[in-house]
Amino acid sequence: MSFAEACRAGSARDWDAAVNHPFVDQLLDGTLPDDRLRHYLVQDYQFCDAFVILLGAAVATAPGLGERLRFARVLGAFAADEDDYFTRSFDELGVPPGERAAPELARPTREFDALMREAAGSRSYPVVLAVLLVAEWLYGDWAARGRDRDLAALAPRHRDWIRLHDNPDYNAWVDWLRAEFDNATAAADAEPAAQAFARAVRLERAFFDDALIARTA
Ligand SMILES: Cc1ncc(CO)c(N)n1
Fold it and tell me: Which residues bind substrate per the record (predicted)?
């Protein structure tokens, strides 16, 4: 078992709970109420802010030009496609500018933000990779559940969020990140990376929990 697989196995309860979360079930079924999607996307747009910082830290701490360019390309694609998705969905859901830019943060959002900023500040490539890998791999895992569904029947704000996290480019990026994580942790003290990995998985689960239980603003 690779180190990445061992980390995932060590967090299997939280990982599986997140991948099979009722939020994901409802998203895949097209039954997710708009007020829940709205809450989730408003919080996730704040997640994206620190995620861009984390990708920037990956650019800065990667061992060489090849890896640096890989992160830089993903950063560019993220800044375009993902931001377009948010803008379109916020328009459809009638989210006002203030709530897009500076909403009240839910607790898992604050904690995830803190974890990503800490990881970026650590300037440790394995720790940066651990948090990036969880965010991308876990999202790839739940989105892959859509493969045996008729996604064409879904509203674009549901369908596009699933497809952003399950397409050939995205899947190749997750595979690459996983291999990079295995390499980087083989060459360094892996314990801080393993801890960051476990913390990130807990927060992914909490992030979905919050999306379903939080009160509508
Ligand atoms: C909370 C969360 N985790 C992971 C992703 C995918 O990077 C996302 N958009 N939001």
Answer: 44, 82, 136
What is the CA 155 to chain-centroid distance, rounded? 21
What's residue 197's pLDDT? Answer: 98
Which of 44, 74, 203, when mutated, tests ligand 1's pocket best, judged by the most ligand atoms within 8 Å of its CB?
A: 44
Is the predicted pLDDT of residue 188 greater than 90, yes or no? Answer: no
Task: Give the alpha-carbon dihedral of 140, 141, 142, 148, to 10 degrees.
Answer: 100
pLDDT > 90? residue 215 = no
Q: Could you list the residue range(s) of the whole structural domain that residue 19 is in? A: 3-213
> In the structure, what pLDDT confidence band is assigned to residue 104 with cuts at 50, 70 and 90?
very high
Q: Is 201 in the pocket of ligand 1 (CB under 6 A)?
A: no
Question: What backbone torsions phi and psi does residue 200 show, to the nearest 5 degrees?
Answer: -65, -40
> Number of structural domains, the chain?
1
What pLDDT is recorded for position 55?
98
Determine whether the shortest distance from the Cβ of 47 to ligand 1 is under 6 A: yes
- First vs last Cα of the chain: how many Å apart? 45
14 is in an annotated binding site: no
**Ligand 1 atom nearest to CA at 138:** 4
Nearest CA to ligand 1 atom 4: 135
> Which of 23, 45, 51 maximizes ligand 1 atoms within 8 Å of its Cβ, making it the mutation to test the pocket?
51
Whether this model's ipTM surpasses 0.95 comes out as: yes
Which pLDDT band holds residue 217 (cuts at 50, 70, 90)? very low
CATH number of the domain that residue 69 is part of: 1.20.910.10
